[in-house]
Automatic annotation (TrEMBL):
Segments forming domain Myo-inositol-1-phosphate synthase GAPDH-like: 254-366
One Pfam family of this chain: NAD_binding_5
Protein name stated in the entry: Inositol-3-phosphate synthase
UniProt similarity note: Belongs to the myo-inositol 1-phosphate synthase family.
GO BP annotation list: inositol biosynthetic process; phospholipid biosynthetic process
GO molecular function: inositol-3-phosphate synthase activity
Stored Gene3D superfamilies: Dihydrodipicolinate Reductase, domain 2 (3.30.360.10), NAD(P)-binding Rossmann-like Domain (3.40.50.720)
InterPro entries: Myo-inos-1-P_Synthase, Myo-inos-1-P_Synthase_GAPDH, NAD(P)-bd_dom_sf
Length: 446
């Protein structure tokens, strides 16, 4: 039974313990998903460390700095143990997780061989797919149905069948970026959305079918791509109604991660920015999909959003009102999953004198994304077991992981990585009844 504890001015209820198996249903068993699944198994076997995972390696300060009390996050809040995590998923190709991981070429062959029997045993369920929404892919392992509601019901049946083998379920979208869609009347309510499913409304993409199925079944949902998915009224309503937490979208991995680190530094020092040019080269399946202009538009909107919110040009017109911000992604097959993100930043300082900063981030896209996907799954499961979180729908405290944080209507999103981290850790302190950390520090000088 959860107990009530005092946290600041509000009373919180502790999260329920993580008993039994946590089932993770992954949509899209490609590079990111297979890197996460193989990585979790490698960690479980003691073959590697879970580097990049806040849930596994992060600590949280409790009380004063002089108390020297900073337990691991996984020892402070009741997260599911990695040994209790069970994976399944859907994909538009029949390859099992080993075959898909070998094709992705993210992990070395020696690692994959050690994990081969485990990875081969995870075979994808047929996926919901429509080439209209992802032009560059040709799915061969797909569900058929008389309409989109029929497809949603097939996904719900998949969830129910999997649920018989585990104790709790979370779903995460690791599929490719869909074409750019804007909310329409079909997204305005649950009733309108369900009518749209029956009528094969063109505004309902496959990712929304998965999200509808998950939330209707009371399953938390995370979106690793920039698609319009749970960020519509119908899904927010479903999330609250069925105690199935949701969060923002699009894993914050390489270039945008760097932007949400650097931009707050410029703003903190009141250095102006006249231009920020960002380009990427990427050769994996994601790069191929983003080579399509309609899919790129979806990603572009996600990647462009962070700077405006961080810089607040309406408050600092002399510094940030006229920024020229350009983002490009180029498909370059020889690079594979090893993405290169290059930024040229034109800044200006005292008396308006110009300066430049250039960043060349040769990153590994799926290596950065895999621990984010794992953390989102574990934290959404925690949120569902926490009385003060599970019924509010949007989990804004998970913005730390996402290019496009989701907030309630009328509330601007926070993109500053360090504010996001403070929000995340204070949420964990709050639900466990610990004192919130403000970093004021005056108590040390009384």
């Amino acid at each position: 039974m959860s107990t009530e504890v005092q946290s600041g001015q509000k009373t919180a209820q502790n999260a329920a313990p993580a008993k039994g198996k946590l089932g993770v249903m992954v949509v899209g068993l490609g590079a990111v998903a297979t890197t996460m699944i193989a990585g979790v198994e490698a960690v479980r076997r003691g073959l590697a460390k879970p580097i990049g995972s806040l849930t596994q390696m992060g600590t949280i300060r409790l009380g004063k700095r002089t108390d020297n009390k900073s337990p691991l996050i996984k020892d402070f809040v009741p997260l599911a143990d990695l040994n209790d995590v069970v994976f399944t998923g859907w994909d538009i190709f029949e390859d099992n997780v080993y075959e898909s991981a070998a094709h992705a070429k993210v992990l070395d062959n020696e690692t994959l061989q050690q994990l081969k029997p485990y990875l081969e045993a995870i075979k994808p369920l047929p996926a919901v797919f429509d080439q209209y929404y992802v032009k560059r892919l040709h799915g061969t392992h797909v569900k058929k149905g008389k309409n989109k509601m029929d497809l949603a019901n097939q996904v719900r049946e998949d969830i129910r069948n999997f649920r018989k083998t585990v104790d709790r379920v979370v779903m995460i979208w690791c599929g490719s970026t869909e074409i750019f869609l804007e909310p329409t009347a079909v997204h305005a309510s649950i009733e309108a959305f369900e009518k749209g499913l029956q009528n094969d409304d063109i505004g309902i993409a496959p990712s929304q079918i998965y999200a509808y199925a998950a939330l209707t079944e009371g399953v938390p949902f995370a979106n690793g791509a920039p698609n319009l998915t749970v960020d519509v009224p119908a899904m927010i309503e479903l999330s609250k109604k069925n105690n199935a937490p949701i969060c923002g979208k699009d894993f914050k991995t390489g270039q945008t991660f760097m932007k949400t680190v650097l931009a707050p530094a410029f703003k903190a020092r009141l250095l102006g920015v006249s231009g920020w040019y960002s380009t990427n080269i990427l050769g994996n399946r994601d790069g191929e999909v983003l080579d399509d202009p309609e899919s790129f538009k979806t990603k572009e909107e996600s990647k462009l959003g962070s700077l405006e919110y961080i810089f607040q040009p309406e408050l600092y017109p002399d510094l940030y009102k006229d920024i020229f911000h350009k983002v490009r992604i180029n498909y370059y097959p020889p690079r594979g999953d090893n993405k290169e993100g290059w930024d040229n930043i034109d800044i200006f300082g005292w008396l308006g004198y110009p300066m430049q900063i250039k960043v060349d981030f040769l990153c590994r896209d799926s290596i950065l994304a895999a621990p984010i996907a794992l953390d989102l799954v574990l934290f959404l499961d925690l949120a569902q077991r926490t009385p003060s979180l599970r019924g509010i729908g949007i989990q804004e405290w998970l913005s730390f992981y996402l290019k496009s944080p989701q907030t309630r209507e009328g509330l601007y999103p926070e993109h500053d990585l360090f504010i996001q981290l403070m929000k995340l850790k204070n949420t964990l302190r709050h639900i466990q009844g610990a004192e919130l950390i403000t970093h004021l520090g005056l108590e040390y000088y009384d």
